[in-house]
Amino acid sequence: MPSLLPYLEPGRVEAGCDEAGRGCLAGPVVAAAVILPDGFYHPLLNDSKKLTEKQREALRPVIEHEAIDWAVALVDNEEIDRINILNASILAMHRAVAQLKVLPDHLLIDGNRFKPYPHVGHTCVVKGDGKYASIAAASILAKTHRDAFMCMVHEQYPHYNWNGNMGYPTAKHREAIARHGITPLHRQSFKLLPDSSQMRLF
């Protein structure tokens, strides 16, 4: 695993922020904010997308137990449809930061777009979840909490295989939309079905 940077600037309290679920057709976008202690290290810690489900699930309790502070927040599909996915992703990160009991001095944001959080500076870092430990930790919490939510709602809507695809636009997910229609959790502002010429049913 690559060596992740512990901070952007030494001596200040930094919270890493990341989200999960931007590209999904259903469910919320979920964000996390994590403040790690000085010297935090775990050999598996990395961008959540580069880890297996088993590795992410093993890291989640470690991060939640050892972090100085952490929080997870979501913006649901109806809000996403109203304000668009970029604004929803930023709002979810703001909500996560707002839940922190420890006010950070600075935010490290995964990606290149953010709206300033009141009275806290920020730095956007492209592919930051593979560069900074706190952003990597946030990516893991956002992903594992969102996956848990999608597995829960899968029980209510089993046709869509959300416990496997987590709401992402897989062929089988789109086939289920074509066959069964949409649920109250689908993002209606997204292109849920491709053109008929592109549609492949399994």
**Shape estimate:** globular
- The structural class is alpha/beta
Q: Per CATH, which architecture of the domain at 14-154?
A: 2-Layer Sandwich
Q: Going by CATH, what is the homologous superfamily of the domain at 14-154? A: Ribonuclease H-like superfamily/Ribonuclease H
Strand order of the largest sheet: 3-2-1-4-5
Percentage of β-strand residues? 15-25%
What CATH calls the topology of the domain at 14-154 is Nucleotidyltransferase, domain 5
Mean pLDDT level: 94
**Got a strand count?**
5
Radius of gyration: 17 Å
> Biggest β-sheet: count, sense, barrel?
5 strands, mixed
What ranges have pLDDT less than 50 throughout 5 or more consecutive residues?
196-202
Order of helices and strands: EEHEHHEEHHH
Q: What is the terminal-to-terminal distance?
A: 37 Å
Q: Assign the CATH class of the domain at 14-154.
A: Alpha Beta
Number of helices: 6
| Share of residues in helices | 25-40%
